[in-house]
Specification:
By secondary structure, this protein is an alpha/beta fold. It has a domain at 185-316: Periplasmic binding protein-like II (D-Maltodextrin-Binding Protein, domain 2). It contains twelve helices and twelve strands. It has helices spanning 13-44, 77-89, 113-126, 139-148, 162-169, 201-208, 245-254, 270-279, 312-316, 341-349, 352-360, 368-379; strands at residues 102-108, 130-137, 152-156, 176-191, 198-199, 236-240, 265-267, 283-288, 296-298, 300-303, 306-308, 323-331. The strands form two sheets. Strands 1, 2, 3, 4, 6, 7, 8, 9 and 12 form a nine-stranded mixed sheet that branches. The chain has a three-stranded mixed sheet with strand order 5-10-11. Helix 7 links the parallel strand 6 (236-240) and strand 7.
């Protein structure tokens, strides 16, 4: 199989180009988010969607145990940068501890393909005798593969449910362990000419929930408050396939286990979902901030505290709560026999080096305190 992850053409190139020139500034801001903003937002905003502070299956991040730091409010840019420097410095760089050989099989989420490719290429700079193979594509396919081949590392672009983890324990994967490795804020995208200005969590759910169930389904834009010639126009949903982590996230966390509404079109990647909405005046779909473009409108969330724009500024300030964790699933029982390969790879992914690659790929890094707790659970308590 080909080494590394297949490159997904056109994915996140717009944001990546910007980040390559401003990556230090962006990383500083994202670390402030996880230190002070998201946890605060989750304690005050009631929404049916999630980030690692609340999602079942990703609950190892306890907001009360994150170091207490007030949001940066000073207008003094120099003071802000000093505070941000302190935060970025608290993420440890990757330090190889041994020579490694062997093959790592990376399977699962197509959302994470470009990021996985970057991680594998950079990891080989430290460990040139390690090779990478690509397993099956798609979150569900990756989880199925690790159930049969416990040496696989499965990427998931959604949290794992408790029943999924219990089910894996009854397979060849004896000790499945989900590791949160990055964050992906999601937006509801519509065509740029769509006049809709905002959407509530209940309205968001009603778009993707199938008709005939206990909760309402909306099929026309007028049902969301859009007037004039748009009122009778159909809402055309663009989604990923059934085995995609994105679709799984919508089903499990947006419509809370209900039946999904029928899609206008099903697409292979999130990039193609957004491209389709660009070409469909009445189209709608969910995708990450990294897929934003001028031909689309990211719809603001209407929350109890007011409107929250679906943009990077809202996310970095901690006001935007619609965030999913990106996860790597390993079998901890199989780690004892791989010569330290998976342990080292996870240490790299959760290092300053690996988190910078997440930013370059259009995602957001984790809080340093949360990273340290993750590493403690993977390799045991560390001396720091």
């Amino acid at each position: 199989m080909a080494e590394g992850f297949a490159n997904e053409s056109g994915r996140r190139t717009r944001r990546s180009a910007m980040l390559l020139s401003r990556e230090v500034e962006i990383v500083f801001l994202t670390l402030v988010l996880m230190r002070c903003g998201v946890c605060e937002a989750q304690s005050t905003l009631a929404v049916p969607v999630s980030n690692p502070t609340t999602v079942p299956g990703a609950g190892r991040l306890d907001p009360s145990s994150v170091a207490s730091t007030s949001p940066v409010q000073s207008t003094n840019a120099h003071a802000e940068h000093l505070a941000l420097l302190h935060l970025i410095d608290s993420i440890e760089p990757y330090r190889p501890t041994k020579e490694l050989k062997g093959t790592a099989i990376l399977a699962g989420s197509t959302t994470m393909q470009m990021l996985g490719k970057a991680w594998s290429e950079r990891f080989r700079k430290f460990h040139p005798d390690v090779t990478f193979e690509r397993g099956k594509d798609g979150t569900d396919a990756g989880l199925q593969e690790i159930s049969q081949r416990p040496n696989v590392i499965a990427g998931s672009s959604r949290p794992l449910t408790a029943p999924e983890l219990e089910s894996l324990k009854g397979t060849s994967c004896k000790d499945p362990f989900p590791v949160i490795v990055a964050l992906d804020p999601l937006a509801l995208y519509v065509h740029k000419d769509n006049p809709i200005q905002s959407i509530s969590p209940d309205q968001l759910e009603s778009i993707f929930r199938a008709p005939g169930g206990p909760k309402p389904h909306v099929a026309k834009w007028g049902e969301l408050g859009v007037t004039d010639e748009w009122a009778d126009k159909p809402i055309r949903i663009h989604t990923r396939g059934d085995h995609s982590g994105t679709t799984g996230f919508i089903k499990n966390w947006v419509i809370q286990g209900g039946e999904l509404a029928r899609s206008a079109e099903v697409h292979e990647t999130n990039d193609k979902v957004c491209a389709a909405i660009t070409a469909d005046k009445y189209g709608v779909g969910l995708s990450g901030f990294g897929e934003s473009r001028e031909t689309l409108k990211a719809v603001a969330l209407s929350l109890p505290g007011g409107l929250v724009s679906a943009d990077e500024q809202s996310f970095l300030s901690g006001r935007y709560p619609f965030v999913r964790p990106l996860v790597l699933v390993i079998d901890k029982a199989a780690m004892a026999n791989d010569g330290g390969l998976r342990e080292s790879l996870l240490r790299y992914v959760l290092s300053r080096d690996g988190q910078l690659e997440a930013v370059r790929a259009g995602f957001y890094p984790l809080d340093p305190a949360f990273i340290r707790r993750e590493l403690d659970q993977i390799v045991g308590p560390q001396v720091r």
